[in-house]
Amino acid sequence: MKDRAPKALATARKKAEDLEREIAELKQRLGDKQADQAKNLPALIKDQDFITDMARFSSGILTESHLRQKYRLSENAWIAMSEDTDLIEQIELEKIRRTRSGATKRELAQNHIVKGPEILEKIMSSPRANERHKIDAVKALDALADPGAQRATRDEDRVIIHIDLTGDSKLKNPEDILVIDAAIPKREENGGDNAL
Question: Comparing C-alpha atoms, which of 108, 144, 151, 149 is closest to residue 124?
């Protein structure tokens, strides 16, 4: 029994040394990988998609975890970016451009509008809601569910003829104005090129 204890102790020490070597090797690889990411930062700074994504993050449209995963950014790279004044300036300029173009407003609205159907459903199903509010909620949900079928026809599908017989007269008599508003009949799709 005494002979087994030193062997078990020696085996445990050997395993501990192997684990320490493996940990040191993994730390070295991690350090090399983080150094490579730091070297890639100048390339990212020139990438317009990266700048746009960072501006979207700054505006609250994207999350930090999404950016870190998409661009494979380590903690050191993230800290290095926060200290890069050129990058920060480019992101701020992109934020201003996106705000002026309305892109930020549209994306924020898209993120929030998806909550609309749930809110409308609560209003519609609530026993305490006013009947008028319930009907409005039903109409709004119906419009969100299938907006295409209830849209008015486009101007390309209609012909409007406006004839004004009053000439240059400043006083216009509505009886002297003729307006013809007609829908264009749809062609039959039987392969023929029949004129309207």
Answer: 144
What sign results for the dihedral spanned by CA atoms 90, 92, 94, 96?
A: negative
Which of 50, 51, 46, 39 is CA-nearest to residue 80?
39
Would you state the structure tokens that stand for residue 46, as one six-digit string? Answer: 């020139």
CB atoms within 10 A of CB 87: 19
**Interatomic CA distance for residues 154 and 90, integer angstroms:** 42
Domains of the chain, residue spans: 4-112, 116-145, 152-184
Which two tokens mark 160?
A: 């409007």
Residues 108 and 99: beta-carbon distance below 8 Å: no
User: pLDDT tens digit string along 52-66?
Assistant: 999 999 999 999 999
- What pTM does this model have? 0.50
Residue with tokens 């390309």: 156
CA distance 88 to 82: 7
- What letter represents residue 88's amino acid? I
